[in-house]
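Q: Sequence in, structure out?
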Amino acid sequence: MERIYFNNCLTSKPAPEVIEAMLPYLTDKFQLPENFVISGGIINADLANFRKIIADSMSAEPSEIHFTTGGTSANNLAIKGFISENANQGTHLIVSVIDYPDLLTNAAFFEKSGFDVTYLDTDEEGYVNPEELREAIQDDTILFMTTMANHTVGTLQPLKEYRKILDEANHKIAMHVDACEAYGRYPLDVNDLGIDIMSISAHKIHGPKGVGAMYVRKGIKIGPTKHGINRLDEFETGGISTAAIAGFAKAVELIFSNFDQYFQHIKDLQKHLLDKIESTISHTLLNGPRGDKRVPHNMNISFDYIEGEAIIMMLDMVGISAATGSACASKGLKANYVMMALGRNHEQSHSSIKFTLSRYNTKDEIDYTVEKLAEIVRNLRRLSPLYKEEN
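A: Exactly. Output:
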């Protein structure tokens, strides 16, 4: 079999249609947008169309979409830009202990700069209690940051509940959402959810690397954090790749042209994977909630008595790509901070494997993977001094 890829949380394979959509902008349509000349006007028109495609996918206005060089750039432009522009309104920020590193490192940066930051705890499934958010709000709170779909265990945060609580405060509090793991994988309407600022990424949804977008609701003020020539966007100055933007728009178009079917396919794969693992391999633990409380492409499972790194290496040797629970947290062997916040111990964190699915995966691939996984787990447990083999 060809290599089976279950690491779509890290990145995903660009769709063939995406590559095809990018090619003209690497050859004949290489120009940057300009006024008063035909070639620049054509690029301008194309970019307007790409912006509309992405705006329509989340019920936004095209003017609210700003192209960036990726999800991390979008997060930094959003958080730093909002705080720099609105610090005169307050200096208190709220984030949770399980949010994506982009959010937590920005929170730490501003905390060192003199801002007051509240870090919300989580329960054993990865939920932040909305009532804890209510209690954390102060008179000088200006920003609440959250990750819509947790990057480690897939938990979907209750954004509408958060929005309701923020709106009940006696002053405006903006909500920034890192949606890089949720966008294109779960229904997302910025108006229904009450999102003020949001980051998304192309390479997680079969688009190219090096491009993302920042949504900024009309009326929300963002200050510049990168200074230079406004080629394509006032916030991400300089020359963003128009080819990458074209590929991003094509990836979005492919998903949202029949989103319900795509969404159901991923949900079916997730259920099949979980059912196969739990019915085939003993002493496993699902990390995060079950069913519709998690984003459908993410499945994180701990395998007792053995190390996740060993499982990953042995899966790799039989042509299967997955990730350990330490993905997005550390390149070393530290216990994953999200897992520890959920109350898992070091052994459960280190024994966790994260399978993240895409529309290109099949049930046959899952069946083969679980067959190999069962063999690997059985062999590793036989070597473990912690495991007593069952009769």
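The first strand starts at residue 4 and ends at 5.
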